[in-house]
Amino acid sequence: MALVLDPQIRDWVLIPIVLVMFLVGICRDRVTRLMRSDTKSKIENIRNQQIMGKAKLLRMHSGFIPEERFKMRRKFLIEQYLSQAKEKNPMDAMAMMNDPSNLMDMMKKNMVMMVPQLAMMGWISYFFSGFVVGKMPFPLTDRFKMMLQRGVELSSLDVTYVSSLSLYILTLFGLRGILTIALGPNDDADDTKIMQQQMSAGMNAQAQDMKKVFEGETKQLNMVQWESSLTNLESRVMNVTYE
Questions:
Q1: Quick one: DSSP state of residue 10?
Q2: Which residues in the chain come in under a pLDDT of 70?
Q3: pLDDT tens across 148-176, in order?
Q4: Is 108 exposed, middle or buried (0-12, 13-18, 19+ CB in 10 A)?
Q5: Residue 85's CB: how many other CB atoms inside 10 A?
Q6: pTM
Q7: How many CB atoms lie within 10 A of CB 196?
Q8: Radius of gyration of the chain (CA)
Q9: Helices marked H in the chain — which ranges?
């Protein structure tokens, strides 16, 4: 079934939804920047991450440095850093989980994320329910019907038409890049990164035993058999070029 869309739908439905969502995104960005708390990461955690990063880089790119240099760096990393790790302290995990500042920060991020979304969805469902606001310029399969036509229950309607509620959902994810360009990067206003941070915070609360992690990395470093990655480089480059 084909439809002829009234131009007033563009002026009084599509443009207001996109404009209001853009303004709400700006407000969210400003609110999150004002509510941001300075979380001081432990120097020891940053140091451990840097050590693991150096060990992995040395292990993965060992063939690009001379064999003597590789052995010297491996010996230095193992003796000075990887063998100096402390055992896991269970009290660190308990202190992290019971820290009220972490819980408050997580609650503020969830509030800033959920309240605008619920308010916008309620506003669109109340004022613009049942509107078809646009059409995709390319054909789609029927699997996209539920995603593009939320709130419009018409089996005979072509799948390329977009309802007002589906426009909100698509714009919610599409505006993130535009807001980043206009206002700069802000992880606290990115819903996806907020959820990733909360998941990683839960895993970090288990307090990794860095001694076992470093022991595993030491074994992997000792298993590396040095082999130059620059052997016959000229012939390999020439073969790729002529192919």
A1: I
A2: 1-2, 37-42, 86-102, 186-208, 236, 240-243
A3: 888 887 888 888 999 998 999 888 888 88
A4: middle
A5: 19
A6: 0.58
A7: 12
A8: 27
A9: 7-9, 15-35, 43-60, 67-80, 90-97, 100-127, 145-148, 164-183, 191-204, 210-223, 233-242
